[in-house]
Write a structure and sequence with these properties.
By secondary structure, the chain is α/β, with parallel strands linked by helices. The protein is 43% helix and 14% strand. The structure holds uridine-5'-diphosphate-xylopyranose. The site of uridine-5'-diphosphate-xylopyranose has 19 residues, from helix 10.
Length: 432
């Protein structure tokens, strides 16, 4: 089939490249000519393991076309995916849909024969209705079906999540569109995964409901970790004991330093905003948002306690600053709260992250990026493991810190507390 992905960010580029790997011809369109040029030179502008290789392979076989020419891409495609950003509006919780509606208004000009228009970006319930209103004259002539097809891709695992989805969710009342989309997705609907079709609003809500639930699961285990620290219980035992129950499931039960990323924070806020518009109180999601926000200060206060309340001139090392491993994405990472806070209190901070230097910290004089783990840890008072990159999993701390007295604060529970004790290293985990 001939597809058009509008927007070449995490969603549009990964989906477009993977669709081309299934044999489709895919136009990837972006207004940013620089981005298009780098894609045409085989350079991937996002950090997604494995993406560059698949992109180059399909680009070479002419199944991938990167262009800023939206008109040609639309005219030549049967299915059009809207994959533009839907960031949280400034000083509000609602999703900013201006890019989505801009695209809809462009589509109005170029659609001359039947097309399926799909929202793959995460959009609030009823967005499809609004797009349909903009394209109503096309709709009346049966030239267009507007469909919701949310993605469930995790950064760093996006290719695996694309090719082995737990489910493909399609929201439409058009049998014609359903049939076409079922054949598009057939190659990746394995026996243990589902092609699930529902109403358009249903598909839009499934996305938010899923992300908000995962955020709830994480905040739940994070709060239990607080209780574990007071009761001398190891949170990992709780996660295992709970997760073995099929009804609960073991995934997304790892306690940590508050969830971050471009989705959970944005989607939980947008869901609360939608519920407000429909006069419904989602009290649980609201408390998840607050719990997660409060957690960042809670753990930063713990850092101060570990260092004897006064962090001034103390050497603090952050191993990892991204919101999760295998990405360079800093959006809503808890380090964006912790590092400025500690810097303002006079701490001297060094950080190392495998994804490299972060411009987010350039304005802080006493925050320094180090080129490797040893340089970041040398003579440090406190080593904080903020992100569970594989590189941090087998460290010989005494050898790299070269200091008799130092502490490790393992925010991802990578290490075993008793082994640290045996090695005479002062160790703090989360919920242990
Ligand atoms: C998420 C959803 O998982 C994905 O389905 C959706 O399409 C996009 O948003 P992503 O934000 O890329 O994916 O990362 P994810 O792996 O879900 O982690 C989000 C945050 O939760 C990270 O900060 C991570 O560290 C944290 N997390 C995750 C935990 O703290 N504990 C866990 O057990 C799992």
């Amino acid at each position: 089939m001939k597809l058009c992905m509008i927007g070449t960010g995490y969603v549009g580029l990964v989906s477009g490249v993977c669709f081309s790997d299934m044999g489709n011809t895919v136009y990837c369109v972006d207004k940013d000519q620089k981005k298009i040029n780098s894609l045409n030179n085989g350079k991937v502008p996002i950090y997604e393991p494995g993406l560059e290789e698949i992109l180059r392979k399909n680009f070479k076989q002419k199944r991938l076309i990167f262009t800023s020419d939206l008109k040609t891409a639309i005219m030549n495609s049967d299915i059009i995916f809207i994959c533009v950003g839907t960031p949280t509006k400034k000083n509000s919780n609602s999703a900013d849909l201006k890019y989505v509606f801009q695209v809809a208004n462009e589509l109005k000009k170029y659609i001359k024969k039947y097309k399926i228009v799909i929202t793959k970006s995460t959009v609030p319930v009823t967005t499809g209705d609004k797009i349909e209103k903009i394209l109503k004259n096309l709709k009346n002539k049966n030239l267009v079906d507007i469909v919701s097809n949310p993605e469930f891709l995790r950064e760093g695992e996006a290719i695996r999540d694309f090719f082995s989805p737990d489910r493909v969710v399609i929201g439409t009342d058009s049998n014609k569109a359903n049939k076409i989309l079922k054949s598009l997705y057939l190659p990746i609907i394995k026996k243990n995964s589902r092609y699930f079709s529902t109403s358009r609003r249903g598909a839009e809500l499934i996305k938010y409901a899923s992300n908000a639930f995962l955020a709830t699961k994480i905040s739940y285990i994070n709060e239990l970790a607080n209780l574990c620290e007071k009761t001398g219980v190891d949170i990992k035992d709780i996660s295992f004991g709970m997760g073995s129950d099929q009804r609960i499931g073991e995934r997304f039960l790892r306690a940590g330093p508050a969830y971050g990323g471009s989705c959970f924070p944005k989607d939980t806020r947008a869901l609360v905003d939608t519920s407000k518009n429909f006069n419904t109180n989602l009290s649980i999601v609201k408390s998840v948002i607050k719990s997660n926000d409060d957690r960042k200060l809670l753990l930063t206060r713990k850092i101060e306690t570990i260092l004897g309340k006064n962090v001034r001139n103390k050497n603090i090392t952050f191993l990892g600053v991204t919101f999760k491993p295998n990405t360079d994405d800093m959006r809503e990472a808890s380090s964006l709260f912790m590092i400025p806070y500690l810097n303002n209190k006079g701490a001297k901070i060094r950080y190392f992250d495998p994804s490299g230097y972060k411009k987010e910290f350039e304005k802080f004089k006493k925050v320094k990026f180090c080129k490797d783990i040893s340089a970041a840890c040398l003579k440090s008072d406190l080593i904080i493991i903020h992100t569970e990159w594989n590189e941090f999993k087998l460290l010989n701390f005494k050898k790299i810190v070269k200091k008799s007295k130092f502490t490790v604060y393992d925010m991802r529970n990578i290490y075993n507390p008793s082994k640290m004790k045996v090695n005479g290293i002062k160790y703090f985990g989360i919920g242990r």
